[in-house]
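--- STAGE predict ---
source: upstream dedup step, 1 unique chain passed
mode: sequence only
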Amino acid sequence: MMQSFATQLTNSKLFQVKGVDAEKFLQGQLTADIAQLAKTGHSLASHCNIKGHMVGLFRIMRLDAQTYWLRVNEEIADSAFNNLKKYSIFSKVEMSFLDDAVGFGASNDQAITLTNQLGLSGEIDHFAASETTAVCKLADNLWEIWSIDSVTSSLKAQVDSPLENWIAANILQAIPDLRAATQEHFIPQMVNLQALQGVSFTKGCYTGQEIVTRLQHRGILKRAMRLYETSNETNISEGAAVLNAEGESLGEVVMSATVNEKCVLIAVVQQAAFENSTKLQLDSGEVLTNLPLPYELDPRLFESKR
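--- STAGE serialize ---
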C-alpha cells in the first residue's frame, strides 16, 4: 500500500484546447467520449494514427464547455500536440501549451490540503474545476491536480515526495502512460483503455476508430496489459522486452517504478502467455511475478467473434 505522498508532476506537460468547436473537435479525434465529460469531468483518452496505434495518451479535463486541458508525458508532448493540432485547421479552436501550469499527484490527505489551498474546498467526489484549477480522482487514494493559479509557486515548496511514488501509484492501479519508447506501439485495448473508460465504442468516428472498433466487435485481442513485480529493485526501461525462459519476446514494458524495495511494472504481454502461466522474465534474468489487476478485463475480448 502506498503511503501518504504529494509530488510535483515534473514529467508531464499541460496544453489547452479552447473554442466553440472544442468538444466537437476532440470528439472527432480522441478515443474517449468527450461529451460525457460534462458529467464525469475527466478521463483518459488516446489519439491514434490511422492504423489505430496510439500517438498520444492524455488525461483530459473539462473546465467548461469550451475549455479542455490535456496532460501528456513530456517525452511525447511536442509530437502528441502537433499530431492533434494538424487536424484542428477546420475547427474553431485554439491550442497552446500552458507553460505556467503546475501539476501535483497526491494521496487523499495531501490532495485535500492542496485543493483547499487552491480554493476548491469541500468534499470532491470525482472531479472539481475552477477557471484556474482542475482536480481529478483517479482511484481510491490517488489524485491528480493541475493549476495555473499563482499560489502554485508556494505549493511547489510544500511537496517533497519523489516522483517515483506517483508513477508507482499509477502502476499499482494499472493506469498506463505513453512514453517515447512506446509511442505508436499499442492500440488502446492493449493497454486496457476500454476498462478505464478511455475508449467509447458508441460515439461515432475518430481517427483510427475503424481498427479499434473492429478489434472490439470482430477480432481477438492477443495482447493485453498486466501487472507484475520483481523481488528486487531493478532499473527497467519503458519498451524493454518481456521474455520467456527461452529468451523469446512475449511482451513489452509500459511503465515501471520502485516501491517497498521491489520494482512494480505494467507490461503488454501475449494473452496466451498469461493464460498458460508462462514464466516471464526480463533480459537481466529478473523473474516477473504476476499481480492481480485492480479491475476486470472482459473475457470476450480474447474470444473469436466469428
